[in-house]
Amino acid sequence: MGLGFQLVHWPDGFCRRLADRGFFVVRFDNRDAGRSTHLPGTDYALVDMAADAVGLLDALGADRAHVVGASMGGMIAQVMAAHHPSRVLSLASLMSTTGRRGKGRTSPRLIRHLFSRTARTEQQAVERRVRLFETVGSPGFEQDFEEIRRAAALSFRRDPDHRGGRRRQYRAVRAAGDRTDQLARVTAPTVVVHGTADLVCHHSGGEATAAAIGGARLVLVPGMGHDLPPGAWPTIVDAIVDNARRAR
């Protein structure tokens, strides 16, 4: 998942759709999020977070996987495919970017959300998450605010003091810089999915990602923002499944 987000932010219904198509779906918390290890006072890089995912595959006894990442998770998935090609059957990069300057820029409208204080109570966490997705969510799709509230409450219970981890993850993203040259090494079949109404990561980031990876397919979803609205699930799931079928 993305910056500061947890495995619970992959909607159950979305994952069930993938399972119904024949996949064994594994969600996990990145380091410094949810119930994974938190690392105060430690700096790390996206390549370390990609190695975490490879280590999880080792622990599960899985030689290879179809890898899907959203936002920062898309960056981690990209690095995983570039540095550990034998472990990635296919790559799906959702609402992410390459790190190249000027691509995937964030709208200035989001500044107040990015620098808000840490929620002190579960109710505050839920209210802030709803306000955030009222801004960054998909204007072209109906939003499931009941699911947003449920996931926000659950994530607060799982990791109430998450701000330090979010900062360290952000530093890892900033330190990664432009990964365009790395992406040229990706050999896994790749699909890049991006919403045309994404304020967190402009769709130019998705376009740059698809251009950097040989043979990558680009799926632009009209009206989708920086979220996974139920109305877009059929398009996204079809894109992931169709891309996975390209794997040897």
Explain what you see.
By secondary structure, the chain is α/β, with parallel strands linked by helices. It contains ten helices and four strands; from the N terminus they run H-H-E-H-E-H-H-H-H-H-E-H-E-H. It has one domain: Rossmann fold, CATH 3.40.50. Helices cover 44% and strands 10% of the residues.
What is this structure, in a nutshell?
By secondary structure, the protein is an alpha/beta fold.
Biggest sheet layout: 4 strands, parallel
Element string (H = helix, E = strand): HHEHEHHHHHEHEH
Strand order of the largest sheet: 1-2-3-4
CATH architecture: 3-Layer(aba) Sandwich
Radius of gyration: 17 Å
Which geometry do the CA atoms define? globular
Structural class: alpha/beta
- SS summary, helix count: 10
**Cα separation of the termini:** 26 Å
CATH topology: Rossmann fold
Poorly predicted segments: none
Number of structurally distinct domains: 1
Q: Share of helix among residues? A: 40-55%
Task: Give the overall pLDDT as a whole number.
Answer: 95
| Top CATH class | Alpha Beta
At the fourth level of CATH, the homologous superfamily is Alpha/Beta hydrolase fold, catalytic domain
How much of the sequence is in beta strands? 5-15%
Query: How many E-type strands?
Result: 4
